[in-house]
Amino acid sequence: MSGPLSGIRILEVGVMLAGPYATMLLADLGAEVIKIEPPGGEISRQVGPSYFASLNRNKSSIQLDLRSPEGQARLGELVAESHALLVNMKPSVIRRLGLTYDALSRFNPRIVCVALTGFGLDGGDEPAFDYVIQAATGVAAMTGDPSGPPMLPGYSSADNSTGLTAALGLLAQIVSGRGGQVEVSLLDVMLSQLNYRASAYLNDGLVPQRYAHGAHSYYVPAQLFPTANGYLALFVTHDGFWKSFAVEAGLQGFTTMEERVARREEVLAVVTEALAADTAAGWERRLRPLGVPAAAVRTLPEALAEHPEMVVQAGDFRLVGSPIRVAGYEPSYRPAPELED
């Protein structure tokens, strides 16, 4: 069975992570993705072979100097035969290289042009790297221990999230049957992902605060807990989960979420004491069959070892495969393209 996006051609003028991740997901689903690289190659090739491979499998590549008349002419030819173009660069560069719908619609009025930027096409050229956006949108401020400094996640959450959103916007406009300009910015995506936190502030005046061990602001207990060996993520979101957990842990009282939230510190104290009686792995084995959401904290190597079905081979590189499973379709994984003249 061919991929669900078979027959769709997408051009990518992408750098580093967000743009290339978006188009790689589409390529995994069967789209033909042509990566347009400047002479000498896209900058992430300099980071390292495994980095480039992790974001550019299943694509082909051509080198074009888009600053030259020849490069622009070839771009127009490609646009005439493509469904979409995705670019992530500074707004001034996107416009200067003619990578907008206004500039390219003369070649193909149905072309979908996706601009992935830091602050929007009209938002200026200020640097917008992942960590900068996390700092600017409040993510860093609400992450970490309350008595410590702001913290950043251990991976590029803003870039990855924006790549996913850009892929969605691209497909939505293709499905509409109309060409046009689509904009996705890192700033907008991260503010959007703060949904219930932002709503609580905008409607109820609740300023987000940090809780120890990454505790949830609404649910109790829902956080990391130390155990006899390792940390356990326990996420009790309703009274049924609490009842099952309490019976297994030998706890009494606190039967409603309202009471648990009101007496947060008392609940956390008794849960912490109870969980110290076993290891994180032990609690996971005991709670999972009861339907209680719980998991021992693992390292990435441990997680990959437990889920070998997510590890694929693309040329010389072992990578994490597509997270999208389509019945009857099994992606093939071709290596990231070599840089050719």
Keywords:
elongated; 38% helix; single chain; 6-stranded parallel sheet; alpha/beta; 14 helices; 341 residues; 3-stranded antiparallel sheet
Fold and architecture overview:
This protein has 341 residues and is of the alpha/beta class. Helices cover 38% and strands 16% of the residues. It contains 14 helices and 11 strands. Strands 3-2-1-4-5-6 form a 6-stranded parallel beta sheet. A 3-stranded antiparallel beta sheet has the order 7-8-9, covered by helices on one side. The two termini are 33 Å apart.
Strand-helix topology:
Elements: E1 9-13, H1 18-28, E2 32-37, H2 49-56, E3 59-63, H3 69-80, E4 84-87, H4 91-96, H5 101-104, E5 112-117, H6 130-136, H7 157-176, E6 180-185, H8 186-192, H9 195-204, E7 222-226, E8 231-235, H10 239-249, H11 257-262, H12 264-275, H13 280-287, E9 294-296, H14 300-306, E10 311-314, E11 317-320
Parallel strand pairs: 1-2, 1-4, 2-3, 4-5, 5-6
Antiparallel strand pairs: 7-8, 8-9, 10-11
Helix pairs in contact: 1-7, 7-8
